[in-house]
Amino acid sequence: MFAFVFSTIALKSLLDAYVTPRSSATASRNYRLCLYLLTYSGVVFRSELAILVGTITLYLFAAHRISIAKVIIPAGLGGLCIGLLCTIPTDSFFWQSFPLWPEWTAFYYNTIQGHSADWGVSPWHFYFVNALPRLLMNPMIYMVCIPVAIVNLATRESTVQLLIPLLGFVGLYSILPHKEWRFIIYVVPGITATAAAGASWIWTRRSKSAIYTTLSLALVGSVLFSFAASASLLAISSLNYPGGAALDFLHHRIEHPIGRHFQVYFDNLACQTGVTRFLENHDSPQTILDVLETQNLTGQRTWSYLKTEDPDALLDPGFWSSFDYVLAERPEKVIGKWNVIHTVYGFGGVRILKPGEKSSGQAIGHLKHAGVVEISTDVVAKIATSWKNLEGMLRETLLRGWWVEVKMEPKVNILANLGSQKSYKG
């Protein structure tokens, strides 16, 4: 998202350049700023922006809008040099490895060595038929607005100037086997801008004919639909972090003996679903503010954490015996005598319920109602209650028995070491 900020400002500079005369100094300055920001953010934050820099540069050069000497070289060298001066010293210091350029390391590992496929492979058309429609949400964008903007002579040139490099970036990135929507999120503002040109054309002519009136009403309705869908997905997406909820539960909902040191292990799923350094409790003061706020370290609980995936260590019983708690997806993989003291449920998919069909026992809104599991966070509890109330209000009266069930599944278990003498109380 840091890179997204820079890429959006860069697209703004590109639009500013498009509306000024080609040969003017203002246009060249905006083109340079666009390419500089993209290069800088690619060097510092996200290496995939190198492809977006490439597609925009090639298009502008082919369209005779920029020159190598005045725009490409100054912008490229400036973004590269300043970016390297920012990232290498900073990241080398924090990683204690010099010289370190994280984005090059990630690019080399995932792309050149081909390890990105280890995280899953998607078909070549995934971005076009799955990711982009989900990111754009409103179907009127790609079904009506963009086609109108392309067909209309008044908006065609500006639309094509944005779409070609942006969709070229998506097309080239589709060559990589591993695909995630976050890799192409940078194109959303530009595509939305082209759709806005088509929507404006329709809206300003809403009183001229029945077709424009109908399309204008459809635009309004689609915006309301998108807002409702986005709000629902936002609530559902909050259920995707059982690891973070489990760690919060461990720290604040379980009583631990005072004056003890606790060691906790996180497995892969816990780390991928919300466990972050921000949720950890420091085992000692880390900053001047911590020292000032800590009056007496004696009698305090201290914590340390480990999340190694070393296969040899995970098969060693001695490795597991050193931990007091484990956050794990599959308790049977944890060696030793352990007790599952709490299970955090997470999002498990959606299912369309037909009239007369009841929700399963593991549906959000029914978990808390039926007492299947204690919802571990106030936010999830509120979502569960709200979803259940919506079902009661809308399903029979407005939707004639149809409903969308949001399923919940056990995700992360909190395990306590029975061999440890450190007692706990839930």
Portion in beta strands = 5-15%
How many helices does DSSP assign? 17
From the alpha carbons, calculate the radius of gyration and give it in angstroms. 27 Å
Helix proportion: 40-55%
Distance between the termini: 38 Å
Strand order of the largest sheet: 2-1-3-5-4
Count the domains. Answer: 3
Shape: flat
What value does the average pLDDT take? 88
What are the segments in which pLDDT stays under 50 over at least 5 consecutive residues? 369-376
Largest sheet: 5 strands, mixed
How many strand units? 5
* SSE succession: HHHHHHHHHHHEHHEHHEEHHE
SS class:
alpha/beta
Note down, in words, how this protein is organized.
By secondary structure, the chain is of the alpha/beta class. It has 3 domains: about 1-115, no CATH class; about 120-240, no CATH class; about 240-285 and about 300-425, no CATH class. It contains 17 helices and 5 strands. It has helices at about 1-20, 25-45, 50-60, 70-95, 100-110, 125-135, 140-150, 155-175, 190-205, 210-235, 240-250, 270, 290-295, 310-315, 315-320, 365-370, 380-395; strands at about 260-265, 300-305, 325-330, 340-355, 405-415. It has a 5-stranded mixed β-sheet. Helix 3 crosses helix 8 and helix 7 (about 140-150) crosses helix 9. The radius of gyration is 27 Å and the shape is flat. Mean pLDDT is about 90; it is low at about 370-375.
